[in-house]
Amino acid sequence: MRVSGAGTLAITLAVQALVSAAALVVPVLAPVLSVSAGVGAELVGVYVSLMYVGAMLGSLMAGGWVARLGAIRASQAGLVLCALGLLCSLSGHVVLLAAGAVLLGLGYGPITPASSHLLIQTTPAHRMSFVFSVKQTGVPLGGVLAGLLAPKMEIAIGWRGTLLVTALACVACALLAQGVRAALDTDRKPGRRVSLGDLRTPLALIFSRRSLALLAGASLCFSAVQWSFSAYVVTFLHDSLAYTLVAAGIMLSLGQVAGVAGRLLWGWCADRYLGAMATLAVLALLMTVGSVTLALLPAGAPLPAVALALIVLGAAGVGWNGVYLAEVARQAPAGKAGLATGGALTCTFLGVVLGPPAFGAIASLLDSYRIAFVLIVIPALLFGVLLAAQRHRFKPQELTK
Q: Which letter, b or e, does each residue of 368-377 get, where b requires 16 or more Cβ atoms within 10 Å of its Cβ?
């Protein structure tokens, strides 16, 4: 059975959305789950950090998994690990919640490298940024699924029932993917050995090429901005701009929706007009404009002004991923898109691990969310300048080198 490019995109999008929903279901249910665990709901930040430590390891191992097992089998393994992580959390015990977070991360990490391996083979070069951006909409779509469905399911079947249903959905998706495994995993190498040395290989590849190292560094700074915005904008709007929690939550949703639209728009712009490097440089500038504007808004600022700042920051700060991943795949040596993506995502996930805690530390030390919003975006702006300066040096022809 032959699977079309559109079919491959649909499969990778579905898997991405489901693992993203699985990763967010515990944080969404934190207010009720924390009561059973006997801890404060504010420790959800620790849960997210542990999950992304696991994701860093999973992304580093992804290249070996994809080469030996095939991209679909690696995705199936990721889905099963996500299910196991959720099952660990059913007890509500703190230690098992921590173990579940790491398992979820190990399952989450290989998904994007595996999908990049598949999409690079079925996507025309002139549409790559847009197609990768469409696939990456699975991340915020998974967040929408978790945010909309998990609270309602918790009312109906409890938080344990919600985790169990989500785990079963992951297993069901893994079983459904078996139908296309034979067609899409034809390039797997069953004899290839997977060892601890494979953890170094993706990073060695990334730092052996200046273009890939520059993209990876930019992604660390961009993801720090993205997750600091997602984690703290509600608190900022409530404490500094005197919004109610409900109104602040709606404004956060506005920024996330702008991010979904941005992923599609920036992918289209990169393919048709600017190219990936220049588009990422523009996005760094827009992140800076949105973040600084938000920081300068006074209490009682007009709603349209706040909404516009959040739309700009959300569209750029949440919408950059597809263009970035497509360019990593372009710049990777032939046949090593998955390996390069795994190494680059390690830096991306490191930004998630470091960014929000750094933002919180700045805000606490200086007693100002406003200053934190300005300082957190400066490294992203600097990498944007580097991307703009180097954009003509890095061509897609590196794929053949």
A: ebbebbbbbb
